[in-house]
Specification:
The protein is α/β, with parallel strands linked by helices. The protein contains 2 helices and 8 strands. It has 2 domains: about 60 residues, 2,3-Dihydroxybiphenyl 1,2-Dioxygenase, domain 1, CATH 3.10.180.10; about 55 residues, 2,3-Dihydroxybiphenyl 1,2-Dioxygenase, domain 1 (Roll). The N and C termini lie far apart (about 35 Å).
Amino acid sequence: MNDDSPAGASTAAVPGADKFRYLHTMLRVFDLDKSIDFYTRLLGMKLLRRKDFPTGEFTLAFVGYGDEADNTVIELTHNWGQKTPYDKGDAFGHLALSTPDIYATCAVLEKEGVKIPRPPGPMKHGTTVIAFIEDPDGYKIELIERK
């Protein structure tokens, strides 16, 4: 496909798609309190809201760096009857966060017992410094250093 439209120009088939906004990403989590602690205490997000749904036997918790009206957030979904951690499959890749000092960030996270399967360092064939960490459920989070 040859696309000669300027960067950022909408070519969507759905009328009004240029008014869409990315709201959140949902992750199913096994231990909600552990996940909330990870995203808030260790990664500095705020718990924006949490609600139990007794008839559906699940809880939703939304975490992020700012109000949902202006920021994309993470929806943590905890199904009460889940007896084992979720299988991740091989389709999901990762979430990505920027940090001004990736080495200091990873040092603190490592002391807290966070898994760091890819320690900080330059990307192959580039100068951008990245690392990969895992949340309590094993979801990968890419850290990208941006000063």
